[in-house]
From TrEMBL:
Pathway connected to this protein: Cofactor biosynthesis; ubiquinone biosynthesis
Gene3D superfamilies named among the record's database cross-references: FAD/NAD(P)-binding domain
Encoding gene per record: COQ6
Enzyme Commission designation: 1.14.15.45, 1.14.15.46
Pfam families: FAD_binding_3
Taxonomic source organism: Panicum virgatum
SUPFAM superfamilies: FAD/NAD(P)-binding domain
Name this protein carries in UniProt: Ubiquinone biosynthesis monooxygenase COQ6, mitochondrial
Subcellular location: Mitochondrion inner membrane
GO terms, biological process: carotene biosynthetic process; xanthophyll biosynthetic process
Length: 468
């Protein structure tokens, strides 16, 4: 079987978005697409009920990502399931010396982002795909990749034995055509031939076989994620930087919030084994008076507000005072822990290969940007494919794919550097440095032009957080 475009997926919501983008563009809607994944969630075709406890695995999607979902008609399915918009965000330092509040009104928007369970994002994309395709069951292959052979290689990589016949030996027009494609042998015995293949998560086998090198390192940190419950509904995204790493409290609706707490691997194991009551006490301590006092307004704040008010229009959040997050009353989901790392591919593409999402880059989760970078990759690759089809190019041609790489690499490297810089800046507990970074944090509360640029950058509206 031959497919014009094939995507291999592990973090498959980014690839589902790519499939939708391709299907919605007039120039590419006739391309044949295959998704290979044995994840049982791909069989889901119904709305997920709001009566259940939210899953621990969530994503904070930016307005830019929401626009992608709206363009392909999938956002209306998200709206029928659990999600939580937030228009405010508060970030503060454990020393009590500084805090910054952001408000969507600072940039004339209704919201800063939306927290959505990963399974809701995936299910919404599947529901929309089902509406678009009569043969969706012929697009999704609920199996695994057993081996992979690139057209320039005479040896087969993977689990299956090496073929004794070089790919250059062809005996028919069909064999000649297939000799220029990527061959994929599946664990169920079937084989596919494709002009372009995608990627399969941060430990991408496709990337390895293609010989694409990476740069990266493991952080001396792990993240614990879980769902907690409140007496009142949370409508703000909260993040506090602690000596061991940040803790975030993200609204997920129905008096629930999601916890993303970065700490040492040893502490993560200890927090996983705590009783629910002990864990909730630890969460509330981390988000309240634990490790240091609350930031307080003083005469310097009044001076800074007056001084920076002349630079430009004052942001709506500048006059907002520090608030204490809502207290958690219980942990209602499994506590999951996973190690944190940074990874970036030297190349995003090679002939007939395009890396997207986690296969191309992984970042620290302190700003929740990883999934949005992946969605941006998918949208950019779909656009490049459409441009190639419009002029009759081979969609797996390296010259064409380089345009996708050029578009995405600069933006992804910039975000990776920003997040890595924050991680390193808050990994050192040293008095003078603590004061300096807290002052910078607090200054951002009053410099409205800078604040608006930071918000726009985080929302995906601008590529660089430049002061203007």
């Amino acid at each position: 079987m031959c497919s014009t475009l094939l995507s291999l997926v592990e973090a498959w919501w980014a690839w589902l978005l790519l499939v939708h983008c391709v299907a919605n563009m007039p120039l590419t809607k006739n391309l044949r697409v295959a998704i290979i994944d044995s994840n049982p969630a791909l069989k889901s075709r119904n709305y997920l009920t709001n009566s259940t406890v939210p899953d621990s695995r969530v994503s904070t999607v930016t307005p830019a990502t929401i626009s992608f979902f709206k363009d392909i008609g999938a956002w209306e399915h998200v709206q029928q399931q659990r999600h939580a918009f937030f228009g405010k965000m508060q970030v503060w330092d454990y020393t009590g010396l500084g805090y910054t509040r952001y408000n969507a009104r600072d940039v004339g928007k209704e919201y800063l982002g939306c927290v959505v369970e990963n399974k809701v994002l995936c299910n919404s994309l599947l529901l929309r795909l089902q509406e678009e395709l009569d043969d969706i069951e012929n697009v999704i292959y609920p199996t695994r990749l057993a081996s992979l052979t690139f057209p320039s290689k005479s040896r087969q990589a993977g689990m299956k034995p090496t073929s004794s016949e070089p790919l250059s030996v062809v005996h028919s027009t069909e064999e000649l055509h297939r000799s220029n494609l990527v061959k994929l042998d599946l664990s169920d015995g079937r084989s596919l031939y494709s002009k372009l293949i995608g990627a399969d998560g941060s430990k991408s086998n496709v990337r390895q076989i293609a010989g694409i090198k990476t740069t990266g390192w493991n952080y001396p940190q792990s993240a614990i994620i879980c769902t907690v419950e409140h007496v009142v509904e949370n409508d703000c995204a909260w993040q506090r930087f602690l000596p061991s790493g940040p803790i975030a409290l993200l609204p997920i609706g129905n008096n629930f919030s999601n916890i993303v707490w970065t700490m040492s691997p040893e502490d993560s194991l200890r927090h996983k084994s705590m009783s629910p009551e002990e864990f909730v006490m630890s969460v509330n301590r981390a988000l309240d008076f634990g490790y240091g006092p609350h930031p307080r307004s003083n005469a310097l704040d009044h001076f800074m507000g007056k001084f920076f008010s002349g630079i430009g229009n004052t942001a709506a959040s500048t006059k907002e005072s520090f608030e204490v997050p809502p207290r958690a009353t219980g942990v209602v989901s499994e506590r999951m822990a996973f190690p944190l790392s940074l990874m970036h591919s030297h190349d995003y593409v090679s002939k007939r290969v395009a890396l997207v999402g986690d296969a191309a880059h992984t970042v620290h989760p302190l700003a929740g940007q990883g999934v949005n970078l992946g969605f941006g990759d998918a949208a950019a690759l779909a656009k490049v494919i459409a441009e190639g089809v419009s002029v009759g190019s081979d969609v797996g041609d390296l010259t064409l794919l380089r345009r996708y790489e050029k578009d995405r690499k600069a933006a992804n490297v910039a975000m990776t550097a920003v997040l890595d810089g924050f991680q390193k800046m808050y990994s050192v507990d040293f008095g003078p440095l603590n004061v300096a970074r807290a002052a910078a944090f607090h200054g951002a509360q009053y410099i409205s032009p800078l604040k608006r640029n930071i918000i726009s950058y985080a929302m995906g509206d601008t590529k660089w957080p430049i002061f203007s």
